[in-house]
Each structure stands twice: as C-alpha cells, then as structure tokens.
C-alpha cells in the first residue's frame, strides 16, 4: 500500500511537470501562430498581453518576454495616434529588458527588437529624432547581423527601411529589392533553434519585395 | 489479469483526478474596467497571478475569460498610463462579475507641465515648442541661440545692443545660465551702437528653457527673463570636424571611449572678417578688422549608470577697431578700439542617490578683460585732444577685468510614488570687477560682491491634471549689504487631452548696475513682480499658446536729481504663438505675435516713458521646408516690429531738470532672412563624412532699418543708428568625420 501511494505521488508529480511544459509548448505554438494574422485583425496588443501573462507565469523563459516585446513594438509601429507611440515603445523596452536578462544578454533576435523600438520612437517626429533614433536603430541592426549572420530578420528590416527611405537618401525600391532578395535567401536557409524560436518576417519580406517590382 | 488490476485501479484513479482538476476549476470571470470618470480603459491586461489565464479589455473596457485555477487567487490588472491594480478572487466554479476602476498613473508624459512664462526646447522625447535643431535652422539666427529666440513671443527686435529684451525689460534684465550656473559675458563685449552675438555655439546645448517671466526659484538676479541652457551629454560616436566659411575656419576632435562611458574633445575656431569686409561694404570704418580666436575643451564622464560629470572650458581672444564720424563736429571722427580676453569654465556633476534623491553640484569660473581705447581723431585719423565739452569726454581708456567664481548645489527628493519633488539647495557667487578708467585723470574702482542664495521649491502633483510649483528664494549681497526673500508660485491645470492652462506669480530682484553703485553705494535691489496666465494646446502636429502678463517694476535706479531707488514702471501685454507641422505637406512653420504696453521712470527720464528698447507690436514668421529630392532644407523668417520711440533727453539748466528736447518714433522694423542647408550625405547611415553646406542672407529685401537716434551735444543734429551693413551674407561648409564607427560596432561584439 505504501508502495502504491509512493508510486502514485511520483506519477502525479511527473505528470504535472510534463503537463506544465507540454502546456507551455502548446500554448506558445498556438500564440506564435496567431502573430501573423494579428497585424490584419488588430489583435497585436491583446497578443502582447497574452505573451506577457505566459512570461510572468513561467518566470524563467526568455521567449515569451521576447514575443511580448515584439507584439508590443508592433502595436507601437501600427499605432496611428503618434502621441501614444512613446509609452507603448517604452513598455516594449521594459519587456525586452526582462527577455535580455533571462537570455543571459542581448542576442541577435533581441537586438532586432531594440532596433524596432528605436524606429517606433523615430516615427513620432522624424526630422527632430532622426539623429538620435535613426542612428541607434541602424546600430542595433548592424549588431544583430554581426552576432548572427544567418539571421534573416536584420536584413529584412534593413530592406523594409530602405523601401520607405527616399532614393536620394540611399533608399528606394531598387536598393530595397536587393536587400530583401538576400533576406529571403536567408529565410529559406534559416533553421530556428527550436519550434518556439522566432521565424517571423518571411511573408512580410516577400510582400515588400513584390511591392518593389 | 489479476496482477494488472491494481495498476488499472491506479490509472482509473489518476484519470479521475485529472478530470476533476480539469472541470472543477473552470471559473468564468467577466466585467468592465473603467476610469474614475467612467470612461472605458482599453487594452488593459488582466492576469491571474502565476497562470496563463487572463484577458485584454476591448474598446468598451469589457473583458471575459475562463480560468482553471481554484481557490483564492490574485488578479493583476495593468494598463499603460494607469496605476496597477490587484484584486483577490475566490475561484470556485461560480461565474464572477467584476466592475473595476483603474486610476491614472501620474506620469511625466501625460502629466500637466507648468508652462506659464517659459518656452522649452529640447531633444527629449517630449513634444516641445522648439527643438535644438530648430535653433540652428532658423533663417535669421545665423546659428546664434539668442537670435533664434527672437522669433518667439515676448522678445524685442533690438539691433543696436546685445542681450534679450524681454517684455519691456532692458538687455541687462535677462540672464543666461549654463548647466545651472550664471554666465557673465554670455555675449561678446559691447560695441557702440552695434549688437554682438552670443559666445557659445548652439551645438553645445541639448536643452534650452527660455523663460520670459515667472521662472523657478533656482534662479535669480534677473528682473525680466532667464535663458537656461543645458549642455550635451556623451556624443554617439567619435568624430572629427572641419569648417570653412566666409568668415573663418574651425576644426575639432571629439573622442569617445569604447565602452561609451567617457569622452573628451577640443575645438578651435578662427574668425576674421577681412575677406568679407572687402566684398561687402560696412558703414563704419574698421581700422582694425574684427578677428576672433576661440578654443574650447571638454570632457564628460559617466560616473555610474545614473551619474554624469561634465566639464567645459573655453578661451577666447578677439579685437577690433571702429571709426565713425563724430556727431558733434563734421571735421572729427570717433575711434573705438577693443581688445577682449575671455575664459569660461564649467564643471557639473549630476547623480542619483538611491531611489529618492538626486544631487547636482556645479561650479564655474569666468574671467573677462576688455581693453578699450576711445579717441577723438581728425580727418587724417590723428588723435585730437580738445579740452572743452563735449570733446573732453571723448578720449579715454578703459581696462576692465571681471571675474566670477561660483558654486551651486541642488538636491532633489522625490515625494511619494508620483512626480512630486522637493528641490532645495544653495549657491555662492564671488564677483570681482576691477575697472581702471582714464580720461583726464585715472580712476580705479574695485568692486567685490559675495553673493549667497538659498532656495527651496516643491513640485506638487495633486493629480495628473493639476500641478503646482511652490518656491522661495533668499538672497544676500555683501556689496549691497542687503538680503531679500521672495515667493515664486505657479500652477497648471489640464483641460482635456492636449490643452492646459497655467498661472504664475513671482517676485524677482536684481542688483543695480556697477556704475550706478559707484555713484551711490547705498542702492537697494531693484524689483519686479510678475503675474502671468497662459493657455496652451500641444500635440505632435501643432502648438498653440496664448499668454497675458503684467509686470510691476519697483525700486528702479534713478540717476537724477540724485542716484536713488525711486524709479518704477510697468509692462503688460498679450502674446500668441502658433506652430504647425502638418497642414501644409512637408512644411513646418511658426508665427508669433506680441503686444506690449510698457512705461518706466528710471535713469534720467523726466517722467514715465515708453523706453527706446520697446516696440508695441512685434511679429515673426518662420518657415522651414525640406526638399528630399535635393537633400536641401530651405528656411525663411520674417520679423516685423512697429517703430520704437526715441528721445533726446537734455538737461535744462534754467529749470534744473531733464526735459525731452525732441522725440519721435523710428520707422517700423522689417527683416526677411533666408537660409539654405544642403546635406549631401543625409540618410547615408554608413557615410564616413557628413557634410552640411550653409548659405544664408539676412535682410534679403534690403529694407532700411533704423534702431534709434543719436543726438549731438547741442541737440541740433541727430543721426540714425543703423546696422553696420544692411545685409549679411554667409556661406560655409561644415564636415564631420565619424571615426571608424563600423569598427566600433564590430569590436563591441567580440
């Protein structure tokens, strides 16, 4: 009887452990799959909160904080009312800092988000903020590329920024297309470290490339 | 079969347990989240602590979710711009309906700011009236900080004397502060009937607060206004710079260490107007062409994550000589020679001490020497010594040395969890002025003043929408042997999302000028009381401001019948400012208008008069447009002011009093200026060199400008005071070389 009870406890214990990480995997996979559609249906902010809840409950996973920061900065970039952008971008930075701590430093993917946060601040008042945020946005992308040359996202963002930059400033469709084509090659070769690691950006890169032609 | 049974039993038990876990806890939670005023809070996050369960509020503030958790659980509610809320829930399967209220967080971005009387220009995230790049790109300014401020309401278009003439105040009534400490000789040394520029480059400053009244208790000794400048922090990268222009050459180097925690730099500039004067004829005869040497050095060190130590020092030497026809005799000339040395040094340290305290320590030292040689000369430019009036007083030498040493400490203590702050501190200033004056006899006057002040100020945020600033300042001057204590009060109330109203009141004291103290050492502080009401709407595309003010002057210095503090005066007016970055695609413009009604009885005025530095109506229009295709920014500014009064105040021997022998109004002031900035490297983020070409023309339309009139001794002749030349042209090329920045990026990752 004692033995049975012990076995029972052991089984229950390992089951709940297994259940927990199973739940994490499953929930994350589901939510990550929702990101792509969230741009269209305006659910970015909701998704950001969802990732933040997972992050706070898990406590030691950097990816949910990373995705929370990503969804939050996307919210900032999609926000039409420019006066609301700064606080949202600040919130994204707070989340990203937590991801950075848990990941043991700012890796390539995290620096990509730092670059996007700088871009979000830049959009509020480009002429006045170009010097500060334009430069730091580029610097973060360069850093992200140097850390992981196989990461397609820094290239995709560079291409996107070139797409929006006038030809006279070294941007334009032709220049953007060059970078985006390289980015897509990298996307095709890219192998995420796990099912939960970032893979986003390919569809958007293809979209911008199509616009260039 | 039998063997397996216990295990089957166990599996059954387990399944039962699991199914119970799954079904027992499903509790539905729904409700509404509102502000205290009943408006929905949108996009707020609700989370059951330590679980994945929760929701986000929709556009009506509603939320709904189910949770598998059971028992007593903590619901955490957060939203950007609101104070977080926690609520204990008892989860037992029965649906929970909640109606929650979230209070707005008092945060810097949303909170009301006291703006009465002050214009802020900075590069921080906050929407401001002007940014520091605006200072550089204002067409009429020629990269002079104070000239750019002259396009804002409250300032006068005075061209015959340096300084900021604010709301009926003289140039001496506005003072400049750099990193908290007072700057003596902010402008180049005064010239007869010509305004001089500021000594400091606008690129040195990241933040500018221009207060045309009602300023903080941290500052004093300015009756009218304060210009508070904050120097830049660490640069983003190492760089070298080179400049060549129609008036001189400049070069510099700025070093930044790899960890980006410390920087140092040095610059040198040489200005010589000889080539320019060959091309553009000047009204006065420059027998010594203006030449300026200026060197500066700086270092900035991050002393911790939150602390920074900044040092800036500049050494300048310059000289010039001007000859103008003498007003009293057609056969004589007046020759003025000036040689100036100036040293300015500033060291400031800012640090956060714990979570609540902030410390500022600042010290500065400045030394200025003016050697003036004034001569009466004949047509062959030979010195003449005539012993009768008025000629006797026209040949003189002055050797003036002034120094200022000061220390300032400010401590900030955050109160509670919001933005409320208590700020207090003190300053000690040691002024030493040694002036040797020689005409027929030599007089030597040394004046020293140990000036001490203590101040305390509290920012009280009652809510996000209502804030007050209460301050007081105590000052003592050893020279005057007197002390004063003043109140400074202001408050602001937010009306709607973008609009706000502010009120300010304060009393301001200022020492009499040194010459006046020589005549009567018993003079008291001069005094002004300010009353200001302001309404402002700011958003990212436009700014509107309206401000009314009343200023009461007391104890101004009268110089007749004897030197006393019997003078007085007033100034009142209304000012408007409108800036719009959106309505016209790609065009950024601002308009300012000031109405001023002021009179004062001071110096030798025979009664209450509108002073000659005050125009009733002043307006400016500044337009900027960047044309992407050409990588060029076009800037234009137009300033207008109605005529200013001029007087010939003469001493009437018979009546033993001063009388107005002649008076009138000058022609209105008009000035259209244009400037073009061409930036061939803009947008190339990896460019090794960043070049800016600048071309500017002041008074494009060549409109006649008369600032005032000079009268001859006998009162029979008067001559207009006009600028040295109607127009000013400038062309320059400034290059900065980023020193292998790409290498830095790679290195920092290895």
What is the element layout, followed by pairings?
The complex is a heterodimer of chains A (213) and B (750).
Chain A: H1 2-41, H2 44-58, H3 62-78, H4 85-103, H5 108-124, H6 126-147, H7 152-164, H8 173-189, H9 202-212
Chain B: H1 5-24, E1 27-34, E2 45-48, E3 54-56, E4 62-67, E5 71-78, E6 85-91, E7 96-101, E8 118-122, H2 132-137, H3 145-149, E9 174-178, E10 181-183, E11 205-211, E12 225-231, E13 239-245, E14 248-256, E15 262-272, H4 274-279, E16 285-302, E17 308-325, E18 333-353, E19 357-377, E20 383-384, E21 396-414, E22 421-438, E23 442-463, E24 466-477, E25 482-495, E26 499-510, H5 514-519, E27 526-538, E28 542-558, E29 564-580, E30 587-601, E31 617-627, E32 632-641, E33 645-652, E34 657-665, E35 669-678, E36 689-698, E37 708-711, E38 718-721, E39 728-738, H6 741-747
Parallel strand pairs in B: 1-7, 9-12
Antiparallel strand pairs in B: 1-4, 2-3, 2-5, 5-6, 8-11, 9-10, 11-12, 13-14, 13-39, 14-15, 15-16, 16-17, 17-18, 18-19, 19-20, 19-21, 21-22, 22-23, 23-24, 24-25, 25-26, 26-27, 27-28, 28-29, 29-30, 30-31, 31-32, 32-35, 33-34, 35-36, 36-39, 37-38
Q: Can you walk me through this structure?
A:
The complex is a heterodimer of chains A (213) and B (750). Chain A has 9 helices and no strands. Chain A has 213 residues and is mainly alpha-helical. Chain A folds into 2 domains: 36-148; 149-213, no CATH class. The mean pLDDT of chain A is 87. Chain B is mostly beta strands and 750 residues long. Chain B has a 22-stranded antiparallel beta barrel. Chain B has a 5-stranded mixed β-sheet with strand order 8-11-12-9-10, with no helix packed on it. Chain B is elongated. Chains A and B meet through helix 1, helix 2, helix 4 and helix 6 of A and helix 1, strand 3 and helix 6 of B.
